Structures
1.
Amino acid sequence: MQWDSEIRDFKNYLKLERGLSENSIEAYLRDITKLKEFCQGENKSLEIDLVTSQILTSFLVTLSQFGLSTHSQARIISGIKAFYKYLMIEKRVANDPTLLIDAPRLGRKLPDTLDLFEIDKLLAAIDHSKLEGPRNRAIIEVLYSSGLRVSELTNLKLSNLFLETGFLRVVGKGNKERLVPIGSEAIKYLNIYLKEVRSHQKIKKGEEDIVFLNRNGSRLSRVMIFTLIKNITIRAGIKKKVSPHTFRHSFATHLIEGGADLRAVQEMLGHESITTTEIYTHLDKSYLKQIIEEYHPRS
């Protein structure tokens, strides 16, 4: 069995049957390619159907020796397991060598968040005198107001804005659609951007329905969103590492801390499993500890 042809078929499967995004597909393929290079290196020339659990274990030991983090190792194992699961479904292999392979245990890392004061500092650091100022303000307002992923923001469409009723239609992971509420401040600055900036732009063909555009009239890239947020964070004097996902984490954390229903937050974030959303219930434990120390009679 040839690696290249099977990897190509796996890519089509992920795209057509699983409906994964290009970024997710590329991540899967990078992981499988690492295994392919290991199996074909050092004169082994092993094809897919000859890979055993012992060979996979040697591969993982090699990754560890190269200093790959446990999170990266776990992601690669997950990708390889998905690959062999696909091969079993398609009856391309008789045995699944990943069944005896366990991913390394991961500690549950709580995501960084911003408090309200820090969010206000970020918003105040945006230079509205520049052409991109109103757009950048609208971007951060929408990220924090609706908890969007960066890919959901860059692909947000005008036809999916229902600002009169306070909702956005978002296309998330696996091309799943969901309706997400948007707050009044975000609507205000989104309208300013649309009416005062975007309406005067020359828009590239095919991008007419995209909300957030660069100076050339094309949709913004993920890298551009990360860069503009990084620059605003520096101007605001905030020392935390802030990314688009930080606003998503902050959105969820502030809702949970304010007493929002966990199922409602799950729906708004587009989490498939509520266990993913439950991480936000642990974010305020330092506050709970403070309450115990201040008010418990035997603390």
2.
Amino acid sequence: MQKSRLGKCALAALVIVAAPLVTSCAQQDPMIVSGVTDDYRTRHPIIIAEKDQVLDLPVGLTSFSMTPMHRTAIDGFLSNYRDSGNAVVTIMVPKGSANAGAARSTASEFAKFIRGRGVSSGRLQTVHYDAQGEDSAPIRISYPVMKAQTGPCGQWPEDLGNTYENRQYSNFGCSYQNNLAAQIANPSDLLTPRRMTPSDMANRGTTIDVYQKRGISPEFNQISEVSY
């Protein structure tokens, strides 16, 4: 009987000693837990940065003037030029290539055509790039614009099978952020709101008059939870 009583006392002592240990294991530092990010918007943020709009136009060995295809391509390329804030347009002409002579002649017509589309001479420059060994190096036209963009996708630093923490994988949300950034017409909308346009006073007055004359329809009273 005494031996049984001693065993019960020892078991009670063991439970009392072990309880603080279990409690201490359950405690977590809130600063450490909250410091681990699991948000795709933080891993793949949309940033506003300057990026070049680029158009490469092929030039044949014996083509010494613009073609209708060139005119159509440049016209479309410059359709949003005004949104860039009249940035500098650069024409890069190949040198050392087999079509270098044709490219120089064609580039001068490009410059004339671009000036005719409203780009001033002070905002247009022609430079050369080394294209040694190429037969038909293209003429590149570019100008910088502010764009919403994210980093490149396809980063897989960890094994996707490691899911015991039940957290988002590194590349999760990257394509979504990229697609969202590509659809933003005016990147400055992400920074500051636009000024509100003035209201149409005539339309507002007409709408209010119609509402006041119509009153409250019986149908609305039937489906409404408020008694008027």
3.
Amino acid sequence: MYPRARIDALTDGVFAVAMTLLVLDVRLPDEFHPHDAGELIVALRGLTSKFVPYAISFMVLGLRWLSTIQVRSRGEFFGREYVVWWLFYLLLVTCVPFSTMVVGRFDAFAPAIWLYAANTILVAAVAFRMMALTPEIEHGDHLRDRTAALVLLIVSSLLAIGWSFVSPRQALWAFALNIAGPWVARRGRK
């Protein structure tokens, strides 16, 4: 048996590091030396293609973290199968900075979107499996909210894949739908 407090601490740490690593690819080249403010502004505008994937990924991970901490269990210890799935979930979370970097650098190519979407679909699928394995899970609005958020993540991922066949550069915007997760969950409760 594994204590819940230790798993929660590891989870918080992994999410914090993964969310921090996202920003490392948003930077000006070391060899860039602007001669005036105008050049700096132009260069900063040029970072948009990297900043947008960073912001979207930060939002996706932030919503995953919030969703994770909302699931309530009366259990203070978890079995091995649950912990193994949890570690796989955290592995997938740590892959988000890589898939974000690929999208930020190669946003004109559909396979970059496919990689990112595959990463997020796997995160959602493993989260569903973990919900099924959570001992003494408390049912209620928070569980319905998490389920709605995971379904929305899968839907936005599939939409991004489809959109990538038409316009890969625009396809990542499908993930902005995840911002609507709390609203969708509230509407589902009515």
4.
Amino acid sequence: MNSRVKNQVVIQARMGSTRLPGKTALKLGRRTVLEHVVRRSGAAMLVNRVVVATTELAGDDELATWCDEHGIPCVRGSSEDVLSRYLLAAEKFPCENIIRITADCPLIDPGIIDALLSLHAGSGADYTSNVIPPTFPVGFDAEVIKTSVLQNVGRLAELVSHREHVTLFIRENLDRFKTANLSYGQSYEHIRLTLDRDNDYQLLKKVFAHFENGPELFSFYQIMEFFEQNPDLIAINSDVDRFEGMKKSAASENRRLKWQ
């Protein structure tokens, strides 16, 4: 039986993508995108375990095989109901807190994860994030949720959008939860360092190429220094709305996000 841990990262990952197929297995430097996310998440001092939550689709067999070969705990579930995948991860690998990370964030910073976990513990929050409001670049988003709270959300969330976007029910019903938010001293929310389109990939390749001969776990601060020295690079993929996916899901239900 898998032991219960305090803080468990769950990375939602899939190969299917209409805009950038197979993006999770793309190479950045010597490693794949998923490997970067797993290694960086696991480097956080307060993280006890990292689990990958992928789908049951045949196209994601490659991800499950990679996890098996590298000793990474993995669960497979619904391709549409991502919330159920997180709950499955918590069922098979029990934990007190879930740290939600997406596999399109190969620069996720272990220091930011630790800061979130410290804030979460100190505030006694149900839900702690760095996105309400966002001040970090897209691609450094992370959320901590008490497992018991997410299990309750699983019982309450009925909209398709609330099942697809794991914490959207919480973010649209903040009055029901005790929340905390990690903010940075200045706003970098206009910088996009996530992977969803080819131009995102081109920008990320430039970042990894710059640090090729440096420390492998280069930090958020080093990345921001790189962009301060190369501000023109920001324009490569700056035309994408941070909340595009959530807005699209809400629109399919003939509604707007509550903070729009």
